[in-house]
Amino acid sequence: MKIIEPLLQFVVFPGFLFTAVAGLIFSWIDRKVTARVQYRIGPPWYQPFMDILKLLGKETMIPAGASKRVFLTAPLIGLAGVTIVSTLLCLADFDPNLGFVGDLIVVFYMLTLPALAIILGGFSSANPLASLGSSREMKLVLSYELPFILALLVPIIKSGGLLTIGGILNYQIAHGAIFASASGFIAVVVAMLCIQAKLGLVPFDISEAETEIVGGSFIEYSGPPLAIFKLTKAMLLFTLPLFVVVVFMGGITLQAKEVAWGILKLIALLVVIVLIRNTNPRLRIDQALRFFWGPVTILAILGVVLALFGH
Q1: Sign of CA dihedral 173, 179, 184, 190
Q2: % pLDDT > 70, the chain
């Protein structure tokens, strides 16, 4: 009986099923805002759901020369990673005492799994364009992880060295949102730039670049494996803004007004992500490396220094 409740939490709520539905709704908001920016009407709310269902009904084609086991396992790795992150974030948000020491570190590492899945999937497909996409993804990960880690140091420092999501939430309940401080604001800006890259959205959609390498790592994927990759990306579209809200903006309490305010914060962050995507050109991989290792890392270091001095 002890295993049933954690299993339901992981599979149903607040795990996979809840995150999948929320992610697909956020994907619809993404497409709707994009359509408005481009003076179009946009798709109906159920279109992302239909897209996934359509792919699930298609045949899975495995290219000749591909490493079949890795090719088929890669999408599941990314899906598992984002599900674990969402489950840990939501549980800690509902009750800060449900977390464990180091769960923030676990979340950080789990957030790298979707990118790792893309890298493995591309390299295992035996397609030169997919391998090029995976190579770009690997370089991009190396570029944005440093400033992302530095941004995470800000809430850790301000909370007195706590490595638990619940502990950081309790600190914000007592002292106000970390985002409201100078160092917290800088950390959120840095984190949002890194999230744009984690989502693989313009200007950092370098590994897909449909006009250059025809989808990159996903070029050989079809059917259910492609559906899983797309679902993972949709789930990240919900989970990554949730991460920012929980760690930097005080989370979402289960009171009616606070829930509405929390949802508003999530949607506001999503709209920022979508607007960045629709108002910028794609960077080259060398430009992305210089951007993250240069001004973004310097900005993140400034945030850490301000946090150390209590600002």
Answers
A1: positive
A2: 98
